[in-house]
Amino acid sequence: MNQESMSATRDALAQAGHVSFSSLFPATRHGAHTVRHDAEKWLADHLPPEGHESGDLAATASLLAAELTANAVLHGRVRGRAARLVVTLDATAVRVEVTDARGERLPAKSPSEDGESGRGLLLVEALADDWGVRPHPPGGKTVWAALRR
Prior knowledge:
Blueprint: H1 3-15, E1 19-26, H2 29-46, H3 53-75, E2 82-89, E3 93-100, H4 119-127, E4 130-136, E5 140-148
Antiparallel strand pairs: 1-2, 2-3, 3-5, 4-5
Helix pairs in contact: 2-3, 3-4
């Protein structure tokens, strides 16, 4: 997609009340940390400040982005492949999506009792109004969480 068509698409989405942040990041702890902070800045620019109901929404979306990007690094990393964080705002919801290269490693809806991981998804379940996972061809997955506005 060239710069002109990207701009036209962004303008059309903005007019429809739909804007999004999208960034590839290295599937490393530092990459996840950096993209999460970039998304937090973007959310601060697009939602009212803390203390307002939507400010709390920004904080919750930031927590979801932190957990999902950390999970992509921990469970979805493939050497040499990047992950992607997308945060979308529209009139009804904030949606956080993270795509990684490990489609065969799907998150469990609840952790096993003796497992050492999976607890972060309990946080996602508690914070999000809805969440799930879908395949991302040719072999990855996208884990998403949605917050109603």
